Amino acid sequence: MSRTGRRPPEGRTAWRKAALVALPAVAAVAAMSVGMAEGVLASSFAVSGKAFQVSSGRLSSKGLASFVDVDRSAGGDQHPGALLAIGDARLSDLCQAARVETPVGTVVFKLKAGGRAGEIAVRNLVLHSQDLSGDAEFGDVEIGRDASTLDRVPGVRGEPGRFGLQAGDVTVTGVRSHAWSATGGDFHLKGLTLDVSLNGRACF
Question: What pTM was estimated for this model as a whole?
């Protein structure tokens, strides 16, 4: 049932309150390598090993694909999580924040955009996430599809025989995530601000 009490249209699935709770569970099933074709930037760089916050009031996209992935830090540590690839996306606002320990204390590095400045456009956004929650509505969901056959986000595929999921139209409100990395083909950030503060406030 949707928030209004009406059943979602046939062929669509509505999930509420941590609708993507299955994604972190998938990340715990196994760690697998990524088979990325040309067309989407993957996390090909060494990650810092420090998860950061990502939040948005509303995200909508034409296409979503996901499978288990492993990021690696410069020191060789491995960080399993869910690779979430979003095709042509629109965000009402965006906040990314990381807490960094320094000799003078905990510094919060925060980037914000959108809001009053206008909607944000992102193409081929790839998040490697520990978790993701929000109120979501997906259209044409396919769960358990072979990761090598995913086709909702061009170029995003996993290894043959691996667990994958994808969806058509996607809308998520109240997005909150802890991620190891984020990359994108194109970001159009309106009203971009960058703030570095001692003991500052993160996104959530």
Answer: 0.72
Q: Count of domains in the chain? A: 1
7 lies in some domain: no
Q: Write out the residue range of the structural domain in which residue 62 sits.
A: 12-198
Q: Is residue 170 part of a domain?
A: yes
Query: How does pLDDT run along the chain (204 residues), one tens digit per residue?
Result: 545 555 555 544 444 433 343 343 333 332 222 333 333 334 455 557 688 999 999 999 999 999 987 777 777 787 788 899 999 999 999 999 999 999 999 999 999 999 999 999 998 888 889 899 999 999 999 999 999 999 999 888 888 888 899 999 999 999 999 998 888 778 889 999 999 999 999 999
Q: How far apart are CA 70 and CA 180, in angstroms?
A: 10
CA–CA separation, 81 and 87 (whole Å): 19
What is the Cα Rg of the chain in Å?
A: 17
